[in-house]
Amino acid sequence: MGYRMYDLIEKKRDGGVLSSPEIKWMIDEYTAGRIPDYQMSAMTMAIFFKGLDKEETLNLTMAMTESGDTVDLSGISGIKVDKHSTGGVGDKTSIALAPLVASVGVHVAKMSGRGLGHTGGTIDKLESFPGFNTSITMDAFLKQVNDIGIAIMGQTKDLVPADKKLYALRDVTATVDQLSLIASSIMSKKLASGADAIVLDVKCGSGAFMKDLVSARALAEEMTELGRGAGRKVTAFITDMDEPLGLAVGNALEVKEAIDTLRGKGPEDFTELVMSLGAAMVHFAGIADSEEEARVLLSKSIENGDAINKLKEFVKAQGGDERAVDDMALLPSAKYEYELAADTDGFVESIACSEVGTASLLLGGGRLTKEDEIDLSTGIIMKKKKGMPVKKGEALALIYYNDEEKKEAAAARLKAAFKIGRVKPETNDIILGRI
Hints:
The chain is α/β, with parallel strands linked by helices.
């Protein structure tokens, strides 16, 4: 049946409920270029003010999921489990998590994106391994998962094209920050990627999209409901992003930290996050009867070297130099190192997480536009985190850089990110909640 976009805009503007066929028609027509941007802008603004109910949100998500190719993972044995993070500063989780869970028998078939903003995406970070190739064919991707239990490739351009168009439009019309639109954008990509079960990592805090626990919990609930409505198993962790995750911020530096973590020598907060998400994935995959039992399996895999060996096997399978796992000097490294010193004694009261991300971006570690080249070698190592005592002249962070001007700009941002106080503050656990 034919609809008129004008009528649908008017209906939503007045608080009406869009039917499943109306939403499907709208998304198909917009993806095909038959609805102009100015009309879809009016619709997203109407949604921003009037909202979508649960059924409309699920219908929107499914229409977007079906707007392009969907990945068929039925040729891979077992339950396929995917993980998604809403993103934050120093978030290198997939690089440690995927090989770890694959090492105990979970099949990890993951599609990841490149970064836009303060650091690279998982794909950019993996390219720190010389020769690593994420542009593999779907057949090679599926074969690799069957052969070694893990593959990570870049998202194909034909996966959820509706979301690419819609997100670009929302980004320039001040309609990004709407719960149903955020949830449907994320979940449409996850559903199209073909996993049977999805573990979500919803970041909360100054360095995350969701700044407070109430909004992070609302997003987590919305996404888990969408996943279940689409017939998938879903769980969501709400995790702290009031300071950078782990100690490393910047592409090759984060890869090094992920390698350390798979050797059992990672930072406490990052290790706990990887173990928590990993235990949920292993349990979903049916390899352990409980998350407690799954944790034991994961710990053993780190202790006996299976986890680090799986990383090497994965890197080699995708054309990368697996020797870099043992010899991290083969990863990109910056020419210079600068120590950012504290001006006063006290305790680290807070760290403006997004400012640390901006400092990394200024060093060359992120992209302002999709066309920008990333400098994989630059970044920051945090020497102090929230609640730690600090003496005047002591290092707050180390800056790794190749350009003096960029270092000066980054150092100024990073210095301003640290707030030193007289009283030791309360610190957060990495896991703030669970849906």
